[in-house]
Amino acid sequence: MNNISQNPQPVTKILIIGSGGREHAIGWKFSEDFKQKGQSVEIFFAPGNAGTAQVGTNVSLGSIEEMKNFAKENQIDLTFVGPEAELAEGIVDIFKAENLAVFGPHQAAAQLEASKAFAKDFMAKYGVKTAAYKNFQGSQLAKEYLQSQDFPIVVKASGLAAGKGVIICQNLEEAEQAIDEIMEDKTFGDAGNEVVIEEFLEGFEASILSFFNGKKIVPFISAKDHKKIGEGETGLNTGGMGVIAPNPLFTDEHFKMFEEQIMEPTKCGLIKEGLEFAGVIFFGLMITTKGVYLLEYNLRMGDPETQTTLPLLETDLYEAVIKSINGEEFDLTFKNQHACCVVMVSGGYPGNYEKGYEIRGLEKVTCPNFIAGAKLENDQVVTSGGRVINVVGLGDSLEDARAIAYENIKKINFDFEYYRTDIGVI
Ligand code: AMP
Ligand code: GLY
User: Fold this and answer.
1) CATH number at residue 306
2) Do residues 300 and 356 share a domain?
3) Where does this protein have coiled-coil stretches (predicted)?
4) Nearest Cα to 302, choosing from 126, 84, 49?
5) Residue from 303, 342, 370 to probe ligand 2 pocket by mutation (most atoms less than 8 Å from CB)
6) Which residues of 292-319 are buried (b: 16+ CB within 10 A; e: fewer)?
7) What is the DSSP secondary-structure string of 292-331?
8) Residues 53 and 30 in one domain
9) Alpha-carbon dihedral of residues 396, 402, 407, 408, nearest 10 degrees?
10) Do 160 and 235 fall within a single domain?
11) Which of 170, 274, 313, 381 is the most buried (most CB within 10 A)?
């Protein structure tokens, strides 16, 4: 790993890849930490959004090659990669070949997110607790296998499908239809060249982010995502309508099971396979009466898990990331508080949504808030994405955090706004 000396220059320069609320929150945390240290930082976002423009400078860099050249020419001290697409394309390998400090998995490890079939084989090989499964590259064998299975069952497109390639099937007919949609109709494109057929697990979900330094995995506090568009977890799946942290259902006992049966075997497997890296591992968990299971790995920060957990992180983010890149020991400590992040979206999301409407009242908001999909147009902040803004209440109890989030969200208005009113209701 590169040996990067800490802060050789008076101004630290950071490049953040991505354009969502996640990237705004990462930039905000760096900026707050540097303010607290009394040190200067210059943050660039590629491409960023109207919110990141308040924290640093948005730059338009079309390709990974351009990002690399920008980092070299501007003597960037650290590049933090937000989205999975660039990771799967190998941005980290390209940056490291030029001795640039970059936080994220190399392409080989990014396969743990980009290929569910690869991830499941890895979990099975290293004894990471997960649902029983089988991978298929052809629809005929997949359908034959279904004949002998119990239902419900889960059919997954193996590749990256923006969180949409998972179909829960109640009976044989639905499962055969799912195979046809994924493998024959190619609803998710090449992501459906291979499928994972998996045991259905019943329970509740939790997400745990972590940083890996190539030797040790250091976990964040747990979080709970609210994925459906409608109140009471109804309707279509979204990228995430809100998150609370810590997850009130995830006990210390669950945490211990996660560490022993998922986190440690993952670390050992990565090292044995020669897949060590400095970056994020995001564990998507299902907690059942039989224990804690790993549903999936993401090799990037979650959105909006990042917006929810970073405001609670006490540790200096830049120091933790640089230590991780250098393979050094570091801790992550969190405030003994609760966070509740509510996502305001634009009408129509997660389908085709409205855009181009002015967002009013942002100046009245008194808690952390992160722009997910808005741009500057003639000095106005206007909606430009499905998920528009994340409002994060912080409090000594979950109830306080919820109350603060909802009190502030009422101050923000734009045409066709929508948000769930039950984020954090357990
Ligand atoms: P994934 O992308 O694999 O995390 O799956 C997306 C969502 O599908 C998860 O957050 C769960 O809600 C659901 N899911 C995935 N795998 C299973 C499973 N084996 N049993 C039940 N639900 C699942
Ligand atoms: N909120 C889930 C994700 O980022 O994938």
Assistant:
1) 3.30.470.20
2) no
3) none
4) 84
5) 303
6) bbbbbbbbbbbbbbbbbbbbbbebbbbe
7) EEEEEEESS--TTHHHHHGGGB-S-HHHHHHHHHTT----
8) yes
9) 90
10) no
11) 381
Specify the 3-state DSSP secondary structure of 36.
helix
Q: How far is the CA of 295 from the centre of ligand 1 (A)?
A: 6
If you take atom 2 of ligand 1, which residue's CA is the nearest one?
163
In a domain, 129, yes or no: no
Cα separation, 22 vs 28, in Å, equals: 10
pLDDT for residue 10: 83
Q: Which ligand is nearest to the CA of 166?
A: 1
* CATH code (residue 357): 3.90.600.10
Q: What is the percent of the chain where pLDDT is above 70?
A: 98
Contacts of 197 (CB under 8 A, 6+ apart): 133, 134, 135, 136, 142, 145, 146, 149, 153, 154, 155, 156, 175
Whether 295 lines ligand 1, by a CB cut-off of 6 Å, is yes
pLDDT value at 287 more than 90: yes
* E strand map for 180-326: 195-199, 204-212, 217-225, 228-230, 234-237, 242-245, 279-288, 291-298
Mutate to test the pocket of ligand 1, among 237, 295, 305 (most ligand atoms within 8 A of CB): 295
- The answer to pTM > 0.85 is yes
Instruction: Kindly report the average pLDDT of the chain as a whole number.
Output: 96
- 284 is in which domain, residue-wise? 204-325
Q: Relative to the alpha carbon of 164, which ligand is closest?
A: 1
Name, in order, each residue with C-beta under 8 angstroms of 2's C-beta and a sequence gap of 6 or more.
96, 99, 101, 325, 326
> Per residue in 173-227, pLDDT tens?
999 999 999 999 999 999 999 999 999 999 999 999 999 999 999 999 999 999 9
Strands 195-199 and 217-225 turn out to be unpaired
Ligand 2 atom nearest the C-alpha of 240 is 1
How far apart, in whole angstroms, are the C-alpha atoms of residue 245 and residue 305?
8
Computed over its alpha carbons, how large is the radius of gyration of the chain? 21
For position 210, what pLDDT does the model report? 98
Distances (CA, A) of 39 to 30, 33, 34, 84, 102: 11, 9, 5, 31, 21
208 and 320 both lie in a single domain: yes
Angle between helices 116-125 and 107-114 (to 10 degrees): 100
Q: Given pLDDT bands bounded at 50, 70 and 90, which one contains residue 164?
A: confident
Q: Does a cis peptide bond (omega within 30 degrees of 0) precede residue 246?
A: yes
Assess whether 317 and 214 both reside in one domain. yes
| Ligand 2 contact via 308 beta carbon (within 6 Å) | no
